[in-house]
Amino acid sequence: MSDQSKYHQQKQQWETDVEKTSKRFPERKDDFVTSSEISIDRLYTPEEASSGTYEDKLGFPGQYPYTRGIQPTMYRSRYWTMRQYAGFGSAEETNKRFRYLLEQGQTGLSVAFDLPTQIGYDSDDPMAEGEVGKVGVAIDSLKDMEQLFDQIPLDKVSTSMTINAPASILLCMYIAVGEKQGVPMEKLTGTIQNDILKEYIARGTYIYPPKPSMRLITNIFGYCQTNVPKFNTISISGYHIREAGSTAVQEVAFTIANGMAYVDAAIESGLEVDQFAPRLAFFFNAHNQFFEEVAKFRAARRIWAKIMKEHYQAENPKSWKLRFHTQTGGSTLTAQQPDNNIVRVTLQALAAVMGGTQSLHTNSRDEALALPTEDSARIALRTQQIIANESGVADTIDPLGGSYYVESLTDKIEEEVNDYLERIEKLGGAVQAVEDGYMQREIHQSAYEAQKRIESGEEIIVGMNEFRIEEEINPDLLRVDEALEAQQIEQTKNIRESRNQQLVDNCLDNLKEAARQEKENLMPYILEAVKAYATVGEIANVLREEFGEYTGM
Amino acid sequence: MKKQIRALIAKPGLDGHDRGALIIAQALRDQGMEVIYTGLRQSPVQIAQAAIQEDVDVVGLSSLSGAHKSLFPKVVQALKDKGAEDIPVIGGGVIPAEDIPYLEDQGVAKIFTSGTPTEEIAKYIEKMVDPESSLVAAPKKIAHIGIAVKQLEAALPFYQDVLGLKLENVEEVTSEQVRVAFLKIGETRLELLEPLSEDSPIHQHIEKRGEGIHHLALEVDDISERLNQYKESGVALIHDTPKTGAHDSQIAFLHPKAGHGVLYELCQHSEKE
């Protein structure tokens, strides 16, 4: 008898015994399922965890298909990058928070921009009213960017920027600041999010229609592969898809489908897959269901490696590796009993580390209520430092690898993601699926079902629908100074008056002309305009006139 | 038939987080309302225009970007400017509690904070749009039938052994000076009540009429508001505010003359059950 059928028989015998016991001690639920409705067995044995060979499915860290991790040493050489997303109010204020976080041992920067900046409006645009400096720092011109990185040497830190539709403008500003500091662009390291498809799906900060937006993205790929070779040119993001209410499976499926759309677009624009693919990065969420999350990260690595190697026939192993940043799940935080959020964040951060993340942002306890205070942001960073330095989980690679349950879940997630990828391909690829609203509908359906489970009490959220207390939900919150908007408008007005207007006009005219030539790479034109202190809004508006605006579904 | 409520759900400003807005929209639809969702990036004036054009009964705003203090009052103002101040505005999102008084002061009717069940929002809207409508919500079922007995131990053998009903629990309700036993029957229960002292209303009942059926308990929501409404419409009450009954439920008795000789108890169970 083979080992397989032996386990199978023994397990069936055991299940029969359990049925008897469970008559006296009934189980808590009839069906146990993960967030993605994957059904969870009572027990996992070698039977469930052993389809395929070890080499094919798992392999070794740093080796294809990278299920166990993308580096051969993982956290035994260096911990993940602790990268806290921050930004609010003015560039000056945010610069202070950055320097505080660096002093506290943070190892990379992550810039949050305010909504007008993310949608290409200057602070004095009527559309910006009420939003200036609220969810991030307001950047209008290069002047603001210079203040943002004042006394922060750009050759020493890597900077991640959550910027999408106007990513090219902000990257050019970063390049220009580096130049002023004497740091050449080939030395700059960091990431721009630059993932427009998930903006249409889930996050909402789009400007232009999909086609010209894809052009801007491939322009960045093309420019950076020769000029800014150490910069990650995109961070293909499942984070916001999950926040919008998707399941773990949908998060991975839609992200990878988007990733494939970018690869297709870049190849179509004439780039070689092995030249840009090594600079593609990913960004995932970490929610509470611990094992499902760990399995999700492992499955995502394996799926991407196979797609890059088999489908796109990339030859450079760097093109096969799915490198990712993780942020803990904002939508899992509760406004009620906010200190409980510290515990949620710890569990989620642990899942990200067990899943082999390259960098991590841990949310602050007060983020269901406002932007974090300095105290809350420090606790969030300390959470990562405790996991790294005290728990010992980083001392061996992929410690959950080989768990019957985790391997079985990893397989199951891979299978379900592949089903989705097939469906999306049949719809004509991710861009088409987004335009048809397919992903949006799938996500909304999952979000609504989750809400109903919470309201019926089927799903318990501690402190919210169970274990409640009478409390004043009013801790000390960070407030963005309401006077900031006027100050920012004033500063931008001064810039407009003091710069060489003739030069700005020329730069913008040149950009306009280049935008009309489909084959032209717009990056050099944007860089020139930025250096002349043309504003984010002015540059974005030139392209609005040429490309039109996306108005939603 | 009741008029169908029309609601406009809107996202003012640049915020792109529409999970909450979409969930509220669908939940209100499931409650039978007609819902129009504006989509992202609407200016206060656009929202007011849409509200008037669509002839809605209520406008619901959602913002998670911190711009609520500036944008919500502007929607109220824009409605006023167009002579539509009768359309109430409610809101939600990431809104610190300390901002709520300011927003209400500016004319926002109500702010729902994170974690509010969607059903509560729907009920609020229904009541706001049609204050009469909530009067008619009928009690859901008979929570139990109360039977006065001299002694539980003497009565239980009939119920447990002869009828074969399952005894759920026995507890003392000090406020009524009784010891009670609950027996489950179908979706409802029998409640046997034994007086603990001569002050107990059950003691007085037995003295006057002997053992027998004492009251019917009706399962309800919103017991306090219901009592207020009953009181306003002149229903005779024994208790005009709820008190704690068995299982930590909230209870109140109507006067028997209201029920034409039947003593009714209103009963709202705590959520744990």
TrEMBL record, chain A:
Keywords: Cobalamin, Cobalt, Isomerase, Metal-binding. Residues 1-32 are annotated as: Disordered. Its cofactor is adenosylcob(III)alamin. Residues 17-32 have a biased composition (Basic and acidic residues). It holds the Pfam family MM_CoA_mutase. CDD domains: MM_CoA_mutase_ICM_like. GO terms for molecular function: cobalamin binding; metal ion binding; methylmalonyl-CoA mutase activity. It is an enzyme of class 5 (isomerase). Residues 34-549 form the Methylmalonyl-CoA mutase alpha/beta chain catalytic domain. Its EC number is 5.4.99.2. Belongs to the methylmalonyl-CoA mutase family. This is methylmalonyl-CoA mutase. It comes from Thalassobacillus cyri.
TrEMBL record, chain B:
CDD domains: MM_CoA_mut_B12_BD, MMCE. SUPFAM superfamilies: Cobalamin (vitamin B12)-binding domain (SSF52242), Glyoxalase/Bleomycin resistance protein/Dihydroxybiphenyl dioxygenase (SSF54593). Coiled coil: none annotated. This is Methylmalonyl-CoA mutase, C-terminal domain. Belongs to the methylmalonyl-CoA epimerase family. One of its GO terms (biological process) is L-methylmalonyl-CoA metabolic process. Pfam families: B12-binding, Glyoxalase_4. GO terms for molecular function: cobalamin binding; lactoylglutathione lyase activity; metal ion binding; methylmalonyl-CoA epimerase activity. InterPro entries: Acid_CoA_mut_C, Cobalamin-bd, Cobalamin-bd_sf, Glyas_Bleomycin-R_OHBP_Dase, Glyoxalase_1_CS, MeMalonyl-CoA_epimerase, MMCE/EMCE_epimerase, VOC_core. It comes from Thalassobacillus cyri. Keywords: Cobalamin, Cobalt, Isomerase, Metal-binding. Residues 141-269 form the VOC domain. Its cofactor is adenosylcob(III)alamin.
